[in-house]
Amino acid sequence: MRITSGHARRIGRLFPGSRDDKFQFNIPVMRSPVEQISAAPIAHLHYYEEYRLATWHPQGVVDDELIDRLVELVESEEVIAKGPFNRFVDLTGITNIRLQFGHAFRIAQRRRANYPWREPIKSAFFCTWPIGYGFARMYESLMSGGPIHVRAFRTREAAAEWLGVPVDVLLPEA
């Protein structure tokens, strides 16, 4: 883990004297021998009308820019959608996380403020490695009490049961 100069004042005041947006995670996950340098495009994003479910299986590096582009895409889809839809994110294809700590807080605040439907929806995050699962749990905590119910899962089967869909729908395309 690399913490940029200045560190952060969050996390129980363990890093005093600086701003939240200076705390950055740069964590390689060692999943592949070749580390990807640039952010992955918003690929592997699918919508299943019969289940009212959007799935995303990101690959490679996840950074603030990619998350911003994904949030913009989801928000635009919410505007044109005929109703609310659930979401599933599979973090097992990630090779590196490059997110500024304060960015997660801003995204959660934005999602809570901009969600257009009154009906609550579910957003499931699946990850088997500890760092990704930790990020998903952090986001779950930040979103608690809002109309977007977020849960982190260590098994696809548990996520499928919570979402009310067959497990096959949550598998990445071959």
Strand and helix order: EEEEHEEHEHEH
Total number of strands? 8
User: What count of structural domains?
Assistant: 1
Tell me the quaternary state: single chain
State mean pLDDT (0 to 100 scale): 78
Strand content: 15-25%
The CATH class is identified as Alpha Beta
Broad shape: globular
Radius of gyration, taken over Cα atoms and rounded to an integer in Å: 16 Å
Total number of helices: 4
> What is the structural class?
alpha/beta
The name of the CATH superfamily reads STAS domain
Produce the secondary structure layout.
Blueprint: E1 24-28, E2 45-48, E3 53-56, E4 60-63, H1 64-80, E5 86-90, E6 94-100, H2 101-114, E7 121-126, H3 130-143, E8 148-153, H4 156-163
Parallel strand pairs: 3-5, 4-6, 5-7, 7-8
Antiparallel strand pairs: 1-6, 2-3
Structural write-up:
With 174 residues, the chain is α/β, with parallel strands linked by helices. The protein has a single domain, classed as STAS domain (Transcription Regulator spoIIAA), CATH 3.30.750.24. Helix content is 30%, strand content 24%. It is built from 4 helices and 8 strands; from the N terminus they run ββββαββαβαβα. The chain has helices at 64-80, 101-114, 130-143, 156-163; strands at residues 24-28, 45-48, 53-56, 60-63, 86-90, 94-100, 121-126, 148-153. The protein has a 5-stranded mixed sheet with strand order 2-3-5-7-8. A 3-stranded mixed sheet has the order 1-6-4. α3 (130-143) links the parallel β7 (121-126) and β8 (148-153). The longest helix is centred in the middle third of the chain and has 17 residues, at 64-80. The chain starts with 23 loop residues before the first strand and ends in an 11-residue tail after the last helix. Residues 1-41 have low confidence and may be disordered.
